[in-house]
Each structure stands twice: as structure tokens, then as C-alpha cells.
Specification:
Length: 321
């Protein structure tokens, strides 16, 4: 699939407080037997200007359908959708958007420089402007030394970088990335994460859809989780993820002490001279500490935070019931 771009030239439009506003968005597909399926069902959220926004959900949740509506490739069945202060699909808004699909396709016989030069010509840049822009983009994505290599010699991570460089030609205010780190090795993975963060530092808005939940948790300011076309959760990492349980480790314990804390604890394990006590509430932490005080040596009290993956699996499994 070719990356989507617009060839209307560069545009430094006025910024708005919300980069994306979705209100009551619904997309219904008609079946062959006259039935209908709501791929997106009454979706409501907004993406603030200058943030990295994660958009996640299981396969078939409606993520791709929503992205296509944001890009103006599909029309909603109902609801309101604005992008950079304009109705989705508006030409002026498209001038300020770039999209990188999961698997961007380029002609592999072309070099990185030739690919970027081709797209710069579509944006009607003259030769001098193209040369300057290509140099800047290659440096920005870390491909300065590889710009004259054929794309068939590029790794998957390098192809992702050249795709991002292509997406930056029009200096967009909003970038939409679909699985930007899928299938990358750890170094390329980290490089793409850092590149996404740098785009935010430049004041750009980045909308990221990915199944790499550790990436979403690491780079995103806020996250929306959808399932079966509906919004299930929306918030910052701090708002979404709670302290799951706390592990209290003590030493010098005795068997009778283990019996005393078992009614309070979720689980108790003993390894040599160490006892680990797992509890799931703050009140139980205090109860355990009161019980062991003066009877053993406290080694550590470590809260274990829920991960985005934990929350995601919990939501999806609940939705299947």
C-alpha cells in the first residue's frame, strides 16, 4: 500500500486546541443478507494539539475504519468528525496531515534520496528546495549515510524511517501512524520511539495505532482503548493504570509468622530466610506491616503497577463474555 499524501504544497496553517474531535461517530456496513454491522459505534474522543495519542484495540475493533474516516477515505454513517478544525476530508486539513501505513510500499530499485525526491516533486518543490529538504529529512530520521543505497538493501527499520521521512515532507501538524514499530529489532524499535517523541517536541500531533502496547505505554500522553467499535477506556497512563499489588519482603521470619499473615495476603512464598507477602490493597499492606513488626526484619515494600497490556487483556476478555 502506498503512503497517502496530498500534493497541494506546503501549508503552515493556524493551530487549533484540538487536533481531532470525534463526536457520536458511527460507521455501519450492510451485509449481503440485508443485515448490518456497526464497525464503529457511537465513538467519542478528542486528541489535543501537540500530544502523542495512542489508539488501541483488538483486531476487528474498528481502528482501521476510524483512521480511514479521519483521512476522508470513508464517510461516517452518522456523527461528527473534525480534523485540525475542519471536517474530515477537507482539502485544507489534508494539506496539514500525513499518514504512514503499517507496510508502506516503495519501488525497491530506487534509493532513499530518489524516493524523497519523487515525493518532493509531487509537492511541487523546486530543485534547490528539494535538495535542502531531502538532506534535512535524512538527517532527522538517521539515514544520512544510507540515502544513496537502493531500498532493496534497507532493513525493515530503515524502510520505516524512510516512510516517516516521506510523511514529513509537507511539515504536517498531524501525523497518523499505523503500527510504526511492528517487526523491528530492538535498536530500530528504540530509534522509532525516539523519533516519535522528537515530533512531539516539535509541536506536532502524533496519532499512533499499534499492537505494540509497551510502545504505546512508553511514548503516549493519552490512550483510547476501543473494542467492538465502542470506546472502553480513555485517559493518561496515570489515570488508566493502577497499582495492582504490593510485595512485602521480610527476613528472619518463622513458620508461625507465615500462618499469621496468610489470612491477610493474596499469596505468601518462603525462600530460605526470605518471606515474600503479596497483598492487593493499601489497607492490607498496613495490616501485614503491623503483624510482622518486631518479629522480623523488613527488607522491602515494592508496589507493582499494572501494565497497559494487563489492562488491555482484562478489557478484551471482559468484552467477550
Amino acid at each position: 500500500m502506498l503512503p497517502i499524501f496530498c500534493d497541494y504544497g506546503l501549508y503552515g496553517g493556524m493551530k487549533v486546541a484540538e487536533a481531532i474531535v470525534v463526536q457520536g461517530l458511527k460507521k455501519v456496513y450492510k451485509g449481503h443478507l440485508g443485515d448490518s454491522v456497526a464497525a464503529v459505534d457511537d465513538l467519542n474522543f478528542q486528541v489535543n494539539q501537540g500530544e502523542i495519542f495512542g489508539f488501541i484495540g483488538p483486531n476487528g475493533a474498528g481502528k482501521t475504519t476510524t483512521i480511514k474516516m479521519l483521512l476522508g477515505l470513508l464517510f461516517p454513517s452518522s456523527g461528527k468528525l473534525t480534523v485540525l478544525g475542519k471536517p474530515a476530508g477537507d482539502i485544507e486539513a489534508k494539506k496539514r496531515i500525513s499518514y504512514l501505513p503499517e507496510s508502506p510500499y516503495f519501488y525497491e530499485h530506487m534509493t532513499g534520496v530518489e524516493v524523497l525526491d519523487f515525493y518532493c516533486k509531487l509537492f511541487k518543490l523546486n530543485a534547490e528546495a528539494r535538495k535542502r529538504k531531502i538532506g534535512e529529512l535524512l538527517e532527522q530520521v538517521g539515514l544520512t549515510k544510507d540515502g544513496n543505497r537502493a531500498l532493496r538493501q534497507y532493513s525493515k527499520g530503515m524502510l520505516q524511517r524512510i516512510g516517516i521521512a516521506q510523511a514529513l515532507i509537507n511539515d504536517p501538524d498531524l501525523l497518523i501512524f499505523d503500527e510504526p514499530t511492528s517487526g523491528l529489532d530492538p535498536i530500530a524499535h528504540k530509534d522509532i520511539q525516539d523519533l516519535i517523541r522528537s515530533l512531539k517536541e516539535q509541536g506536532k500531533t502524533v496519532f499512533v495505532s499499534s499492537h505494540q502496547l509497551s510502545d504505546i505505554e512508553s511514548v503516549c500522553n493519552r490512550v483510547a482503548i476501543i473494542n467492538r467499535g465502542k470506546l472502553v477506556k480513555l485517559g493518561t497512563m496515570e489515570e488508566l493504570l493502577h497499582i495492582g499489588r504490593t510485595v512485602i519482603t521480610i527476613s528472619g521470619s518463622q513458620d508461625d509468622l507465615a500462618e499469621q499473615v496468610k489470612p491477610i495476603a493474596e499469596r505468601v512464598s518462603v525462600e530460605g530466610d526470605l518471606m515474600r507477602i503479596y497483598v492487593d490493597t493499601e489497607e492490607k499492606v498496613h495490616n501485614v506491616l503491623d503483624t510482622v513488626r518486631g518479629k522480623s526484619c523488613l527488607v522491602s515494600v515494592v508496589p507493582q503497577k499494572q501494565t497497559l497490556e494487563d489492562l488491555f487483556v482484562e478489557i478484551v476478555r471482559e468484552g467477550r463474555k
